[in-house]
Amino acid sequence: MPIPSQLLPFLLAAAVVAAEAHLILPAFAEHQGREEQEQQQAVVERPGCQDMCGNISIPFPFGMGKPRCFLPGFKVTCDTSSSNRPRLFLAYNISGPFQRTSALNHTSTKGGTGSGGNTNAVELMDISVADNEARVYIGVSSDCSTNGSRHFLAKFQDIVLGDDGPFLLSATHNVLIGVGSNVESMMVTSFGERGKETKAYMPSCLSNLMRRLQYATDGTCSGLGCCLAALPPNAPPLTNFGVGFMPRPNYLWKTNPCFYGMLAEKSRYNFSTHDLNGIEVLYPEGVPVVLDFAIRNLGWCPPEGQQQPPGYACVSSNSTCVNTTRGNDYVCKCLEHYHGNPYITDGCHGWKAMTVHAKQE
Ligand SMILES: *[C@@H]1O[C@H](CO)[C@@H](O)[C@H](O)[C@H]1NC(C)=O
Ligand SMILES: *[C@@H]1O[C@H](CO)[C@@H](O)[C@H](O)[C@H]1NC(C)=O
Ligand SMILES: *[C@@H]1O[C@H](CO)[C@@H](O)[C@H](O)[C@H]1NC(C)=O
Ligand SMILES: *[C@@H]1O[C@H](CO)[C@@H](O)[C@H](O)[C@H]1NC(C)=O
Ligand SMILES: *[C@@H]1O[C@H](CO)[C@@H](O)[C@H](O)[C@H]1NC(C)=O
Ligand SMILES: *[C@@H]1O[C@H](CO)[C@@H](O)[C@H](O)[C@H]1NC(C)=O
Ligand SMILES: *[C@@H]1O[C@H](CO)[C@@H](O)[C@H](O)[C@H]1NC(C)=O
Fold this sequence. Notes:
single chain, mainly beta, 23 strands, 34% strand, binds 2-acetamido-2-deoxy-beta-D-glucopyranose, polysaccharide binding, Wall-associated receptor kinase galacturonan-binding domain-containing protein, WAK_GUB, signal
């Protein structure tokens, strides 16, 4: 799909990379961890490495501190400075991962002035080595009107995971969401950075309430106050993406000045009409998004009977190696009937942890 020309300045202005500033967000939303965390009996980290950050388990290949405590790209940091709770982050790297927030102030559809971008580390919510997934918080983009004409103060949120990093946006767990009375939110995956002309791939969705807020219904996201678009499963690897908007007038700017757009884990987002009044307040850290991870640029799974490559990550007995479709990377899994962490010695056990939980998905 070609990029509509009037959209370009809006998106490009949003892509301004600027000074790094580590934004500290207030943290008061209650933390919901993955159920695996309660399976405390299993050892998840290499000996001598910190395996918890507050309530969040840090299974190898994730880790912090000494280089032997994590594999390349899996370094994390635990921020204990907040009075609320310790917070776990993917270690910030200039080539990713990081998230960037750009403020835009424009008075027409022809684009406007960008305030550059604040970049900050991506916060982790939980990690599952069994599924090779990590859940992170990602901020919400917004598009706010200060009067009936097109005068927007917008916040554009994008994520750079890094082309060489181990993380990808999960195309199966996440969806694009728009919240607003007349919003068309769209996912953008190319910002023309470093002169690279990668194809923009833009699922979008439209919500139009026809000026009637009463059409919006709690729990229903089907184009009235809330809209949702799936990501095609055959999408290219999604390492650099954000959510923007097609310019649309906000007829209800007096009562509901802002439109919102975000990527979110589908099963965790439930539309509420309150979201039309200000979704950022409800999700101060951002909304949960699932990332897939894999061991990247360290070879691939050895063909059967052949020697393991140096640095081979599937070190547990009773674990197996699975090549991913992206190429040049692989994941480790415990064999059937085994549970635990395939990335550490003797990490896969033939017993289940004390508490047995139903799988969420
Ligand atoms: C861990 O979780 C429990 C229960 O949810 C909570 O009461 C406790 O404050 C949490 N501790 C930290 C350090 O976050
Ligand atoms: C947006 O621009 C207007 C006009 O230049 C200015 O008065 C206003 O303070 C700006 N707002 C922000 C948030 O930068
Ligand atoms: C909307 O606000 C802008 C800037 O504050 C102003 O220039 C414009 O005249 C306003 N439009 C209307 C219709 O009030
Ligand atoms: C940042 O990422 C690049 C590319 O993945 C990597 O080569 C480099 O070592 C990383 N830097 C740090 C400080 O981790
Ligand atoms: C979503 O929220 C509505 C009320 O706002 C509730 O009735 C419904 O059960 C919720 N759905 C899910 C899947 O949580
Ligand atoms: C993984 O991919 C490599 C390179 O394509 C291939 O040589 C190898 O046989 C594959 N291993 C498995 C177990 O499929
Ligand atoms: C792996 O499985 C074999 C049997 O297939 C068993 O003898 C061995 O103890 C297992 N290893 C671990 C670490 O559980």
